[in-house]
Design brief:
By secondary structure, the protein is of the alpha+beta class. It has helices at about 1-15, 45-50, 50-60, 95-105, 155-165; strands at about 20-25, 65-70, 75-80, 85-90, 115, 120-125, 130-135, 140-145. The longest helix is centred in the C-terminal third of the chain and has 13 residues, at about 155-165.
């Protein structure tokens, strides 16, 4: 499952390769809620971390409830919407810093940009209609991917959502 979660992040947003600049996103169109309606005691799955309201703000329209994909207790994903407009959040609950560093060092997809004030370390990748932010907080790894149907890059939405999720950890 971990390979699937990481591969999905890389495939959708190209979330891995060394970089050196820093992203400072534009202000979000609307504030993202500070916490899910029932804040989890300990994060064990991605759908406990991100809310439908968060995904709605990132996409600009309500994608409906998230679809969880949990397999081994260490890795999970939550997907809101469907192609061509979706939000995907992947969560690895243990050894996440090592997973994040491996992605960062792998150099498998275009240049990445460091992102300030998201978790303990974060980087982003922008691919036009899709953008992603990978971050770690403590020992947990989170990958946030936003895909929009045409128009401007969703990088600002991905960064804002990642910053919100990191604040919940």
């Amino acid at each position: 499952m971990i390979g699937v979660v990481v591969a999905a992040c890389v495939a959708l947003a190209g979330c891995a390769a060394p970089g050196s600049s820093t992203v400072t996103p534009a202000a979000p169109a609307a504030p993202i809620s500070a916490a899910p309606s029932s804040a989890p005691q300990a994060l064990t799955n991605a759908c406990a971390l991100v809310t439908e309201a968060d995904a709605t703000i990132a996409l600009g329209s309500d994608p409906g409830p998230g679809t969880p994909n949990d397999s081994d207790g260490r890795a999970s994903s939550c997907i809101f919407g469907e192609s061509p407009a979706l939000v995907m959040v992947n969560l690895i609950t243990t050894e996440g810093k090592a997973d994040w560093q491996n992605l960062r060092d792998s150099g498998t997809a275009g240049a990445v940009t460091d992102v300030a004030s998201v978790g303990d370390g974060a980087f982003s990748a922008d691919h036009g209609v899709s953008a992603g932010v990978d971050f770690y907080s403590g020992d947990a790894f989170v990958a946030v991917v936003v895909v929009l149907d045409g128009g401007a890059s969703p990088l600002a939405q991905a960064v804002d959502l990642a910053r919100t999720l990191a604040g919940r950890m």
